[in-house]
Amino acid sequence: MEGPTHVSAPVLAAYGYCEAVTGSQARNFAYGIRLLPADKRQAMSALYAFSRRVDDIGDGALAPEAKLVRLEETRALLGRIRAEEVDEDDTDPVAVALAHAARRFPIPLGGLDELIDGVLMDVRGETYETWDDLKAYCRCVAGAIGRLSLGVFGTAPGAADSARAAEYADTLGLALQLTNILRDVREDAANGRTYLPAEDLAKFGCSEGFHADRAPRGSDFAGLVHHEVRRARALFAEGYRLLPMLDRRSGACVAAMAGIYRRLLERIEREPEAVLRGRVSLPPHEKAYVAVRGLSGLDARTISRQSTRRRT
């Protein structure tokens, strides 16, 4: 792992490309990482750009067989990055940036293999009977991102219980992904995908799916949403225990990103059928409030006090 050294022009250009991709494609993510110092922001942008490439293969218009080939080619590129076989004059800026970031920080690149595995599940059209089944998928596509990000953030010196930081980062990723699934339920249905557990859909009379701007006739759609919201809240509560383990700016970044999704969850809880009419989002001023709250350390201090009370 490299120390803080001069960054060459080709590597800076590669990071610039990744930051442009992040800014244009991931507004919530970009909002959070702007709170980080430059080196961590660059590394997080490189992680996002590689992850976006994987996601775009899965979501694109290629035939499934072609997607499988492209995903395995991307896995081979990851192998080259891991083996330090990507030079700074390589023509792929995402590979250049990620290779540099992996030398700068102890990023567990195996998490990107897990992401590819998760997108392969999408391409194969897998569905999920139980929450445990869905949780395995979420760990691949979101929990792994939490653990990769922790490689960039690190933990603060002397942080209590830091051995569990990766576990909490993984859990927070699950909370964000379940919120995403609720937000995108109509969009995913239009693309032929169902993520919510089949046993939950059956329990609330929603097994026929979501193909209109209103809930299936005779279903308890609000009950389904509130059931999943409670599950996501429990994941947020557990995952937020990561915050006191991070330095101030890393903690602010995580608090901002997680706070945006937690507020999305609250909106979905208040008006469940809104997710059937369009994508639920937060206005810029509310995102700014969440960022300020994260930078103030308020969320981290609150979680720290709660953790202290639980131990006493």
Automatic annotation (TrEMBL):
One of the GO BP terms on file: carotenoid biosynthetic process
InterPro entries, per the entry: Isoprenoid_synthase_dom_sf, SQ_synth_HpnD-like, Squ/phyt_synthse, Squalene/phytoene_synthase_CS, Trans_IPPS_bact-type, Trans_IPPS_HH
Pathway(s) where this gene product acts: Carotenoid biosynthesis; phytoene biosynthesis
Domain of life of the native organism: Bacteria
GO molecular function: geranylgeranyl diphosphate synthase activity; squalene synthase [NAD(P)H] activity
Keyword annotations of the record: Transferase
Protein name according to UniProt: Squalene synthase HpnD
